[in-house]
Amino acid sequence: MFEGRRRGRSGINIWPGFVDILSTLLLMFIFVLTIFMVSQHYLSVTLSGRTSALQRLQAEIEALAEVLSLERARSAELASEVERLSAELVATLGERDQARQQLAEQAARASALAAELAAAEEELERRQRQLEMAAEELERRQAQLTAAAEREQGLQARLAAQGAALAQAEERAGAAAEQVALLNRQLAALREQLAQLAQALELAEGTVARQRLEIEELGRQLNVALAAKVQELQRYRSEFFGRLREVLGEREDIRIVGDRFVFQSELFFETASAEIGPAGRRQLQQVAATLKELAAQIPPDIDWVLQVEGHTDIRPIRTPEFPSNWELSTARANSIVHFLIQQGIPPQRLAAAGFAEFQPVAPGRSEEAFRRNRRIELRLTSR
């Protein structure tokens, strides 16, 4: 029975399982070997990099060693140089002490020399003052001598001049005697002429008195004539204003003030303008017609003039054409004068004047005051 069992066991085939195990082990061995080779390659690369880094560090260490050896040699040289400089410093300190001692001795000698120099300078200044005083005294005496010499020369010149003058005086005395005789004769002739002039003066004074009376009479007559002319001109002025009033009618913008006929500027001109409007032209035509009728009646010996005056309010104007109210008021007066000349009024009987805002008739800054101050005035007067 046991032999049968052994035969049964030996009859089982275990080779495939063994092959599988060996294959598995072989694969594992190949995998591990592959990992080992990869790791070995990585380690070799890493070690080669570290080897090159170590080589560089070794080269740097060698260079630092060389520098260190050089620095050590330099330190040795510096130590020897310090020892040499220390020895020189000790010697220099000794020399400095000797130099200080010598300097102190020289300072003492310099102080002594300075004192001697100061004393010498004082003595020199004293002697210079003495020399200056002596020079001044010498100059003063030279000036005295010069003045004395000049006085002597002047006296001699005066003596010579007085001698010459004495001779001339004697000559003039003879000529003077002749002139005295001539003057006496001329004086007698002048006395005769004075008597004649006195008579002529009396006659002239009488003539002057008569002429003064005549002048006073002529002045009185002239004043009377002027008064008559003024009254006559006043009459014509009143007649002119009366006719204008009749022609123009009763209007608020036209009024008579004293010897003036006052028109509001708005009757003739637009704001900030010097051009006469149509309504203003019609009014001025009536004024010109009335003035021409009256001018035909005024005698030629009355030298009358119609003066046109322009006035503005106090508000300023600044335009290229009218920089100020002076130009505006004058331009408006000139426009009316030119229009009247076109209507046949003689130019020699007209005058224009601009007064800007400086002759107001209404005070204040109200619109009514502005309106009344913007005006054109006509005044019939004598030249």
Overview of this protein structure:
By secondary structure, this protein is an alpha+beta fold. The longest helix is centred in the middle third of the chain and has 234 residues, at 15-248. Among the domains are: 124-228, no CATH class; 251-382, OmpA-like domain (60s Ribosomal Protein L30, Chain: A, 2-Layer Sandwich), CATH 3.30.1330. Helix 2 (15-248) packs parallel to helix 3. It has helices spanning 2-10, 15-248, 278-297, 325-342, 367-373; strands at residues 254-257, 260-264, 304-311, 350-354, 375-382.
In short:
The protein is an alpha+beta fold. It is built from five helices and five strands, in the order H-H-E-E-H-E-H-E-H-E.
Rg value: 71 Å
What is the helix content? over 70%
The overall pLDDT average reads 79
Distance between the termini: 190 Å
The CATH superfamily of the domain at 251-382 bears the name OmpA-like domain
* Overall strand count: 5
Main β-sheet, in a few words? 5 strands, mixed
- Looking at the overall shape, the CATH architecture of the domain at 251-382 is 2-Layer Sandwich
CATH topology of the domain at 251-382: 60s Ribosomal Protein L30, Chain: A
Estimate the global geometry from the Cα principal axes: flat
Order of helices and strands: HHEEHEHEHE
Structural class: alpha+beta
Strand order, biggest sheet? Answer: 1-2-5-3-4
Count of alpha and pi helical runs: 5
What's the CATH class of the domain at 251-382, please? Alpha Beta
How much of the sequence lies in strands comes to 5-15%
The poorly predicted ranges are: 224-228
